[in-house]
Fold:
Amino acid sequence: MIKRISGRLYLKNYHKLFLLILFSIFFFSCVSPQTRINSLFNKAKALKTGGYTKESIAYFKTVIEEADKEELSPFLKKYYKALSYLEIGEDEKAINEIEKVSYPPVLFREEFLLLKSIYFLKKGYYEISKELSANLLKTKKYNLKISAAEIYSQSLILLFREKRINEKKYISGIKIIEKLTNKDFSSPLLHYYLFSLYLNSKRREKALTEAILSLEFGIGEIYKRDILYSIKFILKSMDKKLAEKYEKILRRYYATDNRVER
Amino acid sequence: MNFSALIKKFYDLVKPHLLKNQEEAAYILFSLIYTALKRNERINENTKIIIPRLSTIVSSKPDDFILYFFEENKVLSKLYQKEIREKDLKTLREEFKILYPLIELKEPFLCFILQDELKKGNLYRISKIYKNKRKKILEGIKKIKTSKIKDNLFNTINLMVKAFAEEIYDKKNFREIIFEKLS
Structure:
């Protein structure tokens, strides 16, 4: 009888223990730092689409700061430091920080790839930065895609300038950004990158078209000034009749910037 | 309160402790206000100063664009006569990184830090001048951050920033407006 009672008691306690284990698993999976970071990051993704614009750097930092209340993983510590450096323009320090990471979590893989491509661009390994950023152009995160397009364009321009690729390869590289603008026609920055790419080739008429599109879709003030000055440079080297034709089209943009009319 | 009055107040506050002259105080104050407004947050000892990056714009320009920029500008074409003649693009490109944003893009931070050089036309080897000024600003800010008066100082700066921010709120191109106000 005692055995039976103790057997029943044992079973009863085992049942409790089982429930306790289940509850612990549930509890720890809810509040563990990684899960908390995941949920915060998902929230961030819902609001922002990722990438390294000024706004998204600030946003990612807020997300990680939130997560910092818990114990941060070594990756996130480095990632946070890297973002802080990027924010103040210390790219070199940012990439040195991120270079120390061997295995980034899946959650941050694309962001990490972008940092790597910036790293290779700064170190002069333009082929690698071009390849890495080209992979990121397929991402669904909009800001990340724009940042990748920026790195890709710069790598391509530098490869061409240093004569490490010929014009044929350069033009075929440009087509990748052209495809992006076909899908996302109204992005002023994508048109700006395309404009920069054409400015470095002999196809300067195409550069003008992209410059106009970029202005049309409301590019930021500093870029606008750059475009207007660049247009002056292009028109100067153009056939007179063609230049006059473009000047007519561009008159309304000139009107907003007196410096160009000098 | 205009910017000169602000600088004076700031300078009086830091003079006994840190800074050697009013010019240095002006640069540091501008950098702190610029950072606070750009980040939209209060300044404290952990704030990292924002120094603008324009690498995408300047590094993507072709060689003939850089030559055109130096040749077309009357002051620069005289100052860099030798480099233009010799097509020394390594030197020209280095200087272009500062001169193009300063003269054509009117980047507020550079325009403020290098306003004297711009007025006097002292633009030869400007990248070296800029690097020295930038170094001094960062050193000055480091001193402030570790000083005894930092809390009082940051409070004063944050009050100034608040006054600016309220005025420029809703304006589209706030960097331009800050520059206009602070010049």
Summary: The CA atoms of residues 21 and 82 of chain B lie 36 Å apart.
